Amino acid sequence: MDLTIHTTALPHDDPDAAVAFYRDALGFEIRSDVGQGRMRWITVGPAGQPGTSILLAPPATDPGVTEDERRVVTEMMAKGTYGWILLASRDLDTV
Q: Which of 1, 4, 18, 60 would bridge 12 by S-S if both were Cys, CB 3.0 to 4.6 A apart?
């Protein structure tokens, strides 16, 4: 069986900074950008790899999340422990 990662989700608290990083620093394509202000769901992916996507989503926006849970998510994001992904490249100088 051949399995691939289709989509993974990562949190963002600044959609413009997230777009700048994935598009400008990593060269990813912006595939969709839905919402407005800080409430944007953005899908990015590596150029030439349409089957692999990363969903950049605002965390803790579900109305069922409590204020305490939102606080914990915000603290974890600040520490870099809320969501992560490993990317690999044979030659980082070409990325």
A: 18
